[in-house]
């Protein structure tokens, strides 16, 4: 299958029935700008529209899966990007424009990926920081290498956490609070113990173990997989996942608005030093 020309993402079919989307911006530790997120979304669509693909892998080049949102590169002309939701007025003053951007580019895309009709597996190495979790958590299964770590330190920026606020569902309430309050990175072993990942493997076996799991899944009928995925997601929604996510997103923008009033900045400017001192 031919794929579009992308700047920050590759797509291939590395095993029978498997489509793989790879983050290809290792020079920035796969920091995410809006273009990269748009390309990830397009690549997922390629996989979903290919009748041969029954399981999708999201992998990443380089030492680290993703260092989060690229704070130096977040001011594009939204008119140049395709949108997937019903948000608008991206350049409006006050809270309106930026909330619309985050609703579209962060929560909207993550929720769309969480509901893709095919099983998805994140294949994770190195650090996953803040927005990095927004690529990992929307996936159905997570395979990570032994040295992988996961953190969301952005409470130091004066907000509640990253925008796809599913922390209690992913890590459990107790560990979610510890991650948010302390900003510390949890280890792969901790993540496994708390049910946040499915499997921890040696770094040099990450690709083969992920593809073996994906190929195993891909032997099953597509519709059965789709129904199973939707049924688990429906159970999470019955536990309030979507409502809780939207509620937290509103509080996230209380944080951004507070920072704008107090510091004329979306984030508390002292936060970056707090995070650096603890890194
Ligand atoms: Zn935000």
Task: Summarize the structure in words.
This protein is an alpha/beta fold and 279 residues long. It has helices at residues 34-49, 94-114, 133-136, 167-171, 173-182, 188-193, 206-217, 222-238, 241-263, 271-278; strands at residues 9-15, 18-23, 55-60, 120-124, 127-129, 141-145, 149-151, 186-187, 199-201. It has one domain (9-278): 2-enoyl-CoA Hydratase, Chain A, domain 1. It has ten helices and nine strands. The chain has a six-stranded mixed beta sheet, with helices on both faces. The longest helix has 23 residues, at 241-263. The protein is globular. It starts with 8 loop residues before the first strand and ends with a helix. The mean pLDDT is 96. Zinc ion binds at residues 102, 159, 163, 252, 256. The site of zinc ion (ZN) has 5 residues, from α9.
**What radius of gyration results from the CA coordinates?**
18 Å
The number of distinct helices, counting runs of at least 4 residues, comes to 10
Ligand names: zinc ion
Major sheet size, sense and barrel closure? 6 strands, mixed
CATH superfamily: 2-enoyl-CoA Hydratase, Chain A, domain 1
What is the CATH top level name? Alpha Beta
Order of helices and strands: EEHEHEEHEEHHEHEHHHH
Strand order of the largest sheet: 1-2-3-4-6-9
| Backbone structural class | alpha/beta
Overall geometry = globular
């Amino acid at each position: 299958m031919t794929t579009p020309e992308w700047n920050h993402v590759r797509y291939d079919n590395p095993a029978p029935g498997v489509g793989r989307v790879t983050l290809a911006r290792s020079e920035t530790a796969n920091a995410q700008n809006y273009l990269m997120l748009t390309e990830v979304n397009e690549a997922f669509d390629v996989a979903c529209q290919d009748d041969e693909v029954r399981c999708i892998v999201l992998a990443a080049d380089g030492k680290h899966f993703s260092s989060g949102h690229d704070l130096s590169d977040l001011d594009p002309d939204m008119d140049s990007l395709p949108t997937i939701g019903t948000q608008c007025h991206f350049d409006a003053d006050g809270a309106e424009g930026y909330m619309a951007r985050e609703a579209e580019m962060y929560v909207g895309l993550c929720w769309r990926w969480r509901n893709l009709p095919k099983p998805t597996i994140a294949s994770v190495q190195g650090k996953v920081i803040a927005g990095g979790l927004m690529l990992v958590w929307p996936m159905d299964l997570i395979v990570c290498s032994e040295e992988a770590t996961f953190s969301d330190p952005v409470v130091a920026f004066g907000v509640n956490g990253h925008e796809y606020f599913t922390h209690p569902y992913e890590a459990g309430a107790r560990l979610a609070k510890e991650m948010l309050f302390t900003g510390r990175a949890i280890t792969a072993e901790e993540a496994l113990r708390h049910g946040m990942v499915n499997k921890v493997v040696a770094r040099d076996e990450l690709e083969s173990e992920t593809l073996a799991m994906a190929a195993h899944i891909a032997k099953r009928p597509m519709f059965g997989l789709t129904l199973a995925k939707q049924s688990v997601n429906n159970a999470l929604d019955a536990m309030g996942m979507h409502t809780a996510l939207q509620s937290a997103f509103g509080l996230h923008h209380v944080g951004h608005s507070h920072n704008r009033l107090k510091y004329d900045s979306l984030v508390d400017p002292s936060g970056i030093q707090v995070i650096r001192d603890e890194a």
